[in-house]
Amino acid sequence: MVKGRIPDEEARERLILWIRRRMDEFGITPQAIADSIQQDLENRPVFRDARGNEWNGQGEMPTWLRAAKNAGVSPDFFRIDRAPSPTAEDGEIDPRQLDLFF
């Protein structure tokens, strides 16, 4: 162990404790987190700009996309293509292509 460095397991436990305290502080429940994740999965973004602004195509067009459209840029320029399949040519899953959130 390097002097002054917190072991990984201890750091993990401290982080979990900090997160739980913040959740209590703001009234966030595990169910609220699960519901939010499910909503995100059901309403994935369709458009994204270089700054990370996203829109799922529902409701009013956001300002960033409307401004681009008014400047003559097609909204399709910002369309997110489907992610490539995480399988390699031999049919095995390439772990470098896995996304932890999906």
Automatic annotation (TrEMBL):
Coiled coil: none annotated. Pfam families: Histone_HNS. It comes from Trinickia soli. Residues 45-80 form the DNA-binding protein H-NS-like C-terminal domain. This is DNA-binding protein H-NS-like C-terminal domain-containing protein. SUPFAM superfamilies: H-NS histone-like proteins. GO terms for molecular function: DNA binding.
